[in-house]
Specification:
51% of the residues lie in helices and 7% in strands. It is built from 19 helices and nine strands. Strand 5 and strand 6 form a beta hairpin. Helix 6 packs parallel to helix 19 and helix 11 packs across helix 13.
């Protein structure tokens, strides 16, 4: 083929590709919707993870467009995406018309990366069936059964803080909170003693840090996984580091084999999953729920550990940061702990911790300011017409609900940068739209473990307040500098505070 013909052929291909990109980037304009002009090839997300955290990028767009309609049209790479800017529309997507938006669109690869096929990522009937099987393991009665283990770990946690943190001019508390939640989850999910207080480099802590702090994939792989899921699956692309996957699968397999061989029963989360694996039933129910495979058990144990330890440790970290900067609020919280303990004659019972309502207000205010998931995502399951505009959202389109932006909207929360637990007193909370507070999602896909997470956060916080005064120090940041690469809000320089022993 002559050089001229090659050049002509290349020009034709480039022209076709250019027209294709132009057509893709014209979706929102053709529908007469408000939109943000994209840039090839990243769409509207070129800055994400490089110069700005996703929370602040979507907040900036939300604030720019929230008065122009219930949503704004964006693009991730070549794909049109809808960013919701209206609470009523958010409620339709998450609750009212959930059946049209049941899936998150999170990449998973069941064949090559089985731990990625967990309750958070699964879709359709697979998700519904698994949710029905797992839900009874998070009942109030079973959470109550886990309470003594949480309390025992909390006692060791306080001893650790007193020996290793009290008396220092500055202590990095994020790591300490992660040790606490690692040991709680290890104990309650696997029946294992992680010993994070004695051995900070134990495998559970190392694996947890690697999963959350070390990106696995090159941006090109991320593009393929987000845009061409079928191709990514056929290429064997994975979300989870191989050694993370091998560690968790090995721990679950060894623990199951030991318990079944020795007839050991601990009544923990893994025990319940083993019963489902073997019988399809839980003891307190004659209902045939259905059996679980080993891969399903391992995947659920993995998401319970990673989500449970990171969410709660971050919540405790940011709560202590805010209480250190707001001493008057800290004193009210401490008085609440002391008052409730006195009411229960000093007994650390499940009911005692459930009665610490002001602590719940503090935790919820922290979750408002620092939500664990900054952007909720859903995928259109079948063509859906927006009543307000008549626009038809095509099947497969991704929808983003910017939880962080909503939580910091002054029209929803006055003075949103101020830390004010009274926002969550019954009177104020009852007057707000349920979709104005989305730290755990909302609707049928709300976080299944939120009550357990609140329990361990409440116990940890109460024990700290009873024993220590939390103070800012010379290394306390204001404002916090967040990592741009982490997908959760992560203080890049750690969280430095000072602890003083009370009594």
């Amino acid at each position: 083929m002559a050089v001229t013909e090659v050049l002509l052929f290349a020009a034709i291909i480039l022209t076709i590709l250019s027209l294709l990109v132009k057509h893709r980037y014209g979706f929102w304009q053709r529908h007469g919707a408000p939109y943000l002009q994209p840039e090839f090839p990243f769409g509207n997300f070129k800055e994400m993870g490089k110069t700005i955290h996703p929370a602040f990028l979507t907040q900036r767009i939300y604030n720019q467009f929230k008065r122009k309609g219930p949503f704004v049209g964006l693009y991730i790479f070549l794909n049109p995406v809808m960013l919701v800017t209206d609470l009523h529309l958010a409620k339709k997507i998450l609750i009212k018309d959930f059946n049209c938006f049941p899936n998150r669109g999170v990449y998973f690869n069941e064949k090559d990366d089985p731990l990625s096929s967990h309750l958070f990522s699964l879709e359709g009937s697979r998700w519904r069936d698994l949710r029905a099987k797992i839900t009874p393991t998070f009942s109030t009665g079973r959470i109550r059964m886990a309470f003594p283990a949480v309390l025992e770990v909390a006692g060791r946690f306080i001893d650790y803080l007193e020996v290793n943190c009290v008396g220092l001019d500055a202590t990095e508390i994020r790591d300490s909170m992660a040790r606490f939640t690692t040991d709680v989850i290890g104990r309650c999910a696997f029946g294992l003693e992680c010993n994070s207080f004695r051995d900070p480099e134990n495998e559970f802590r190392r694996i947890g840090r690697k999963h959350f702090d070390t990106p696995r994939n090159h941006p090109l792989k991320v593009f393929i996984m987000k845009t061409f899921r079928g191709l990514a699956n056929s290429m064997g692309m994975k979300q989870i580091h191989d050694d993370v996957s091998e560690f968790f699968s090995g721990v679950v397999r060894e623990t199951i084999e030991h318990r079944e061989r020795e007839g050991v029963s601990r009544g923990d989360f893994l025990d319940l999953l083993i019963k489902l694996k073997n019988t399809g039933r839980l003891e307190d129910s004659g209902e045939d729920i259905g059996q679980l495979t080993f891969d399903e058990i391992a995947a659920q144990a993995f998401i319970f550990f990673t989500a449970g330890f990171e969410t709660t440790s971050s919540t405790l970290t940011y709560t202590l940061y805010e209480l250190a900067r707001n001493q008057a609020i800290q004193e009210v919280a401490r008085e609440d702990v002391e008052k409730v303990l006195k009411k229960f004659d000093g007994s650390y019972s499940y009911e005692c911790f459930q009665s610490m309502t002001y602590l719940d207000q503090c935790i919820n205010e922290t979750l408002r300011k620092y939500p664990p998931v900054v952007n909720l995502e859903r995928v259109v399951d079948r063509d859906y017409m927006l009543e307000e505009s008549g626009i038809i959202l095509p099947q497969g389109m991704k929808i983003m609900i910017p939880a962080y932006a909503i939580h910091h909207d002054p029209d929803v929360y006055a003075n949103p940068s101020q830390y004010d637990p009274d926002r969550f007193c019954p009177e104020q909370a009852g007057n707000r739209d349920p979709c104005s507070f989305l730290p755990f999602g909302e609707g049928p896909r709300i976080c299944i473990g939120l009550r357990f997470g609140m329990l361990q956060a409440r116990v940890g916080l109460a024990m700290i307040l009873k024993n220590f005064r939390i103070l800012p120090c010379s290394k306390t940041e204001d404002p916090i500098i967040f990592s741009k690469r982490a997908f959760v809000l992560t203080p890049i320089n750690g969280m430095w505070l000072k602890l003083e022993k009370l009594h």
